[in-house]
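To: structure desk
From: M.T.
Subject: fold request, one chain
Message: Could you run this one when you get a chance? Sequence is below, nothing fancy, just the single chain.
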Amino acid sequence: MSAVRRVGVEGAPEVVRQLLEVDGNFALLVTILVIAAIVVDGILGGMKRLRRDTGITRRMVVKAVDGGSFVPAREFYSHRLGLAGRPDALVEEGGLLIPIERKAFGKRPTDKDIAQLLVYCRLIEEQVGVRPSHGYLILGPAAKRWRIENSSERREWLDGVLLEMRRALEGGPCVATPHPRKCAGCGVREGCEVRR
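Reply: Done. Structure tokens follow.
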């Protein structure tokens, strides 16, 4: 068995000896730079995850985020429509304010999600004076982004929904249209005329 010999700095080659005798400040500087690189990588990774989770791309300028401290949420009002709302986020695209609504458990856009987003478009138009061409719904844990156009057909559909809501508030007929799966677990199913 060969003997293992411990070699001190004195017996090491000249290059190794110089490396081992590096100034303490230089070693501290290298350590700080390595730690800084790890922190920057963590911050950039966090920003990438945040963009992925919110559906906000690099081309968008973030103008407001609900719950944000750097760009606080913005609430919109329309006395004419009798509506108010605060989108989860506002971004600027092509000079237009675009609302973003996040639904953490959604899989596909529902009529109520689309109506909510279109109401935000309408409120922005009334308050800012420029109609957003679209909005975004960000759905589910994978944060799938759905672009919802603020087209004239969708605007007419929203007018009908708002009219129906006003009539219901004024005591007009209000017909429930529940989903069959929700009916199955409903506590008032036995007394419901619309149950499925």
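Reply (cont.): The CA atoms of residues 164 and 195 lie 21 Å apart. Let me know if you need anything else for the meeting.
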